[in-house]
Amino acid sequence: MSKKLAFFSNLPFQLRLIAIFLLTSALSFAMSLFLNQNINRSLDNINSVYTSNNALNDINSTLESLQTSIQQYLETKSSDSLNNYYFYAQQYRNRIDSMNSMILDQESASMEKNIYNLSETYLTTADQSIEAKRARDSVNYHALFNEASEYYRFLTSYIYSLNNQQFVTNSRNYHSLESSLRSLERINHLMTIAVALFNIFLVILLVGQMTKPLLRLAAASDRVASGDFDVELPPVTSSDELGTVTSAFNQMLVSIRRYIEQVRSSMEAEKKAQERELLMETHLKDAQLKYYQAQIHPHFLFNSLNAGAQMAMMEDAERTCTFIQNMAEFFRYSMKSLQTDVYLPEEIALVENYLAIMNVRFSGDIHFEKIIDCDIVNVRMPCMILQPVVENAIQYGIRDIERDGWIRLHIRAKDGFVLISITDNGSGMTQERLEDVRSGHTGSEPSEKNSNGIGLGNVRERLKLYYNEDNLFSIDSPGPELGTSVLIRIPIDDMEVL
């Protein structure tokens, strides 16, 4: 029995509800079928109770019609009355022959036998009377008719007595059948109550199987919601929908416990990392102190260049004065911290200043073209981004070519970015070299003494850290002696760029 209950408990709720519905429906159908059969049997018995009385009444009515047709023929000798006689005589014989099926007891059987015999004598006498009338034997047909009439009175009396006796018997049977119907009614009520109680029992059983796991699960959920993750896992007692939900809850709780443990471990690791970071900040402060100390020499050089520019101006050496001023301006800008940001026009001015200095060295062989297709006044970006790219183009592209070198700066706005492309017609790169530069394995880092020491890899990383985005820096070259192109994408966000 327990195995059957366990099997039933493991069924899905939908199948359990369908099984209960089918079971109760089968019980109700069986009860209805049983009651209908008994009620139909009782109704058939009730219908047959007074069948014998109806049959006797039909016999008596046919006998009266037969007697009347004989009398009419003897008086009128019409063919209609003769035909009626033959018709009713045949009907009466048929009804008399079927009387045996109505007999219910011995006394009634004796009376039926007398009626049957007396009817045969009556019919014989009636036939003789009719034949005597047709033969115009007036003496005999009167005597025969009187004799037939006497038999008629006896038959009527016997039929009446038998009918009364059958009525009494049928009345007793009717009361007995009425009592049976009332018993069936009581049985119907009892069976209806029994089926209802059984349905209630099944519903209570099913609801109990549903609510007990739900209550355990709800209690565990409340404790978890209050922050108690050490609650005992609810047992999985079945493989139905509730069992699946309970199993999923247990897995979730186990995962939360593991996650909390991982967070604890992570917090401990983060705490250790913070301690290391504090130590690194201490070292960084020492390094910054040394950096500020190292800036004393650029400031001294910057001030010296300004003094030299004033002297060149006083001596009317205009080109020398311009060169020294460009050098001073370049050193002044380069002393800015790389962590600050500047406006894009400042970066472009630094590029132009740097190219002016380089053209003194390269005798004006570097041609510079600037194309600006959008408003760049409000565009901010990290400091020292464009100049290292231009410096890289000169040192590794234009420097070693025999033809005139040129550098093109093109700025435009597209899809929420300011696109800055710096293109040269220098030495270019092979595909292998280009892949190395893109991957950062062998970045193009200036190594000249007059370089500012900031290479393309540094530019790429500072753009990534500043904007917290990848793919802001890209470099491409069609091949050796075909030049190089660098594309820098600056997110504009809410900046006004037209």
Question: What does this molecule look like?
Answer:
The chain is α+β, with helices and mostly antiparallel strands. The protein has 13 helices and seven strands. The longest helix is centred in the middle third of the chain and has 88 residues, at about 140-225. It is rod-shaped and about 195 Å long.
How many beta-strand segments?
A: 7
Uncertain segments are 286-297, 443-453
Main sheet strand line-up: 2-4-5-7-6
Oligomer: single chain
The number of distinct helices, counting runs of at least 4 residues, comes to 13
* CA-atom Rg in angstroms: 63 Å
Question: What share of the residues lie within helices?
Answer: over 70%
State the major sheet: 5 strands, mixed
The end-to-end distance, rounded to whole angstroms, is 84 Å
| Overall spatial form | rod-shaped
Q: Whole-number average pLDDT?
A: 75
Binned strand content: 5-15%
Structural class: alpha+beta
SSE layout and pairing:
Layout: H1 2-10, H2 13-49, H3 51-76, H4 79-97, H5 106-134, H6 138-225, H7 241-294, H8 296-314, H9 318-334, E1 341-343, H10 344-361, E2 366-372, E3 380-382, H11 386-398, E4 405-414, E5 417-424, H12 431-439, H13 456-467, E6 473-476, E7 484-491
Parallel strand pairs: 2-4
Antiparallel strand pairs: 1-3, 4-5, 5-7, 6-7
Helix pairs in contact: 2-6, 3-4, 3-6, 4-5, 5-6, 6-7, 8-9, 9-10, 10-11
